[in-house]
Amino acid sequence: MAEPSEGSQRALEPTRDPRATLPDLLEVLLNKGVHLDLDLIISVAEIPLIGVNLRATIAGIETMLEYGMMRQWDEQTRAWVRASMARHLPLADGEDLIAKMAGGHYQEGFHRTWRPGSAYLTDRRLIIHRRDPAETLWQAPLAAITAIRPIREDSVGGEQRTRILVTLEDGTESKLSAVEPDRLISLVREQTGLTGDDEPVDVGPLREGPMWYLEPRADGGIWRTGRAVLSADEGLVWRSPLDMRAPVRIQPAEITAAELTDVPDPTADATILELTTADGTIRLSAPDIAQWQQQLQERKEVSHGTGSR
Questions:
Q1: What are phi and psi of 290, to 5 degrees?
Q2: Bond into 133 cis (ω within 30)
Q3: Which residues contact 298 (CB under 8 A, 6 or more apart)?
Q4: How far is CA 53 from the centre of its chain?
Q5: 183-196 pLDDT, tens digit each
Q6: To pair with 206 at 20 to 30 A between CA atoms, which of 55, 90, 103, 200?
Q7: What is the value of pTM for the model shown?
């Protein structure tokens, strides 16, 4: 198929190559197209019985549109998609849907959890929306996105998953999931002109290990054994195997003081870490508690912009 000249549409020009294979044919079909101009006569005992006159053009949709074919079908299909989507996802006038796939948004705040839905990319916005009950979980104008990149983290089941980290012009970051994260990142970059590294960055735990937590009670409290994890996005999380929700979940930026104190504790070191926050004091103990204190302080400095990333 010949390439159309700028500002004009040219007719398809046939080519012939007897050495072509099936993969060659598929490549031509998708990227260039094939035009069939066929006159066929079926004969029996040299008597012509059936005549076939076939004129057909087979090509990928993008190639068809490039050569001015099937444009009415394309416009009608896009209009149907917009009308169908408008019943579930409010679209602005003239806003076109580019891609849709299963996805989700990681909700920050008092409860930190993944909220499932669908990821929608239009020519104006990136959206996480769920149909039932109808709710837009997260959205951002494409013009406000300053960076989008893949990150790799462990899921609840221990599997490594590729997530999407979106940075907005106000400096905020949001974590999204998608069934095809690489494709969604690529499409957003095409729409915004952004570039970036496609190699996922690990955002696993900065530190984890056994730890004791002094659970406050009316009689003064009781030491409980469990496991603590410190990560860049979750902060410090402590829970025991019996806890459905983590009793301790705190961001380093929320800590106003982190001091080591020599008081009786479950370990032989007799040293505990007291974390002071606006809501009170959290008391923790571990064999390597001094290292925990140091990393919490480092993360606090990074969150305030005083440390190096």
A1: -65, -35
A2: yes
A3: 307
A4: 51
A5: 999 999 999 999 88
A6: 103
A7: 0.51
